[in-house]
Amino acid sequence: MATPHISADSDAFADTILLPGDPLRAKWIATNFLDDAVEVTAVRGMLGYTGTFKGKPVSVMGTGMGVPSISIYASELIDVYGVEKLIRVGSCGSIQPYITVNDVIIAIGACTDSGVNRARFEGNDFAATADFGLARSVVEAAEAQGRNVHVGNVMTSDLFYGPTNIPLADMAAPLARMGVLAVEMEVAGLYGVAHERGAKALGVCTVSDDLLTGADLTAEERQETLSAMIEITLGAVA
After folding, report:
1. d(Cα 11, Cα 96) in Å, to the nearest integer?
2. pLDDT tens digit string along 78-92?
């Protein structure tokens, strides 16, 4: 069976899938966390794998960057391959002074400057929210392991590089004032697709950059933080 962007057998994917942006990160997750992982798709280099975690089938697949890209893959995974639980695992930049690099953010909701959810919702504002059951499971698993976890809204932005004439602090200030925890680029799109199609979705992000102070993680620190977050998430949702 094939879609315009995925070529895999009809039963190639598990009902639970992790969705990092980077396809090579999907390969890394499959290699290091899943047993008997098999590559099931590689169209346009967007690698996807299915294996098991503690005996339970789990898939992982890259989505690329931004709302349009993750929306395409999530739609096809749900509509054609029957995936029921989709968890974005990625990184974000914090905009609150009490959140630091290495922290974990559970996106219970996602604000956005993208227009895709308004298009789905007949021009109205749509509250893009996570599945509560998935969110609760990951929060409890993270807290049980002593991880510093924050639950709240993120901002899904269409722009990685904002307007050059506006200082970053000025762009972040109204978001922070409204309690937004961090900025990333995919969650609102994933949540819109999941709600529209009756699936469950969650965004779990590690803080790789502090947009207020400029602090960031080294490549080694990012890998360590990501490893801990992946293991917690798999243990909670698989």
Report:
1. 43
2. 999 999 999 999 999
The pair phi, psi for residue 213, each rounded to 5°, is: -105, -15
Q: How confident is the model at residue 162 (pLDDT cuts 50, 70, 90)?
A: confident
CB atoms within 10 A of CB 45: 9
b/e 189-220 (16+ beta carbons within 10 angstroms → b): bbbbbbbbbebbbbbbbbbbbbbbeeeebeee
From the list 35, 209, 210, 216, the catalytic residue is 209
- What would the mean pLDDT of 151-173 be, rounded to a whole number? 88
Question: pLDDT digits over 24-77, tens only?
Answer: 999 999 999 999 999 999 999 999 999 999 999 999 999 999 999 999 999 999
Of 66, 67, 69, whose CA–CA distance to 45 is shortest? Answer: 69
Dig out the tokens for 26 from the structure: 């999907």
**CA separation for the pair 191, 203 (Å, rounded):** 9
- Kindly report whether the global pTM for this prediction surpasses the value 0.85: yes
Q: Tokens representing 234?
A: 């798999």
pLDDT at 195 over 90: yes
| 226 in Cβ contact with 46 (< 8 Å) | no
**Which tokens in the block code for residue 110?**
């996602």
Distances (CA, A) of 50 to 39, 120, 161: 7, 30, 34
Active site residue 209: yes
Encoded tokens for 140? 């409890």
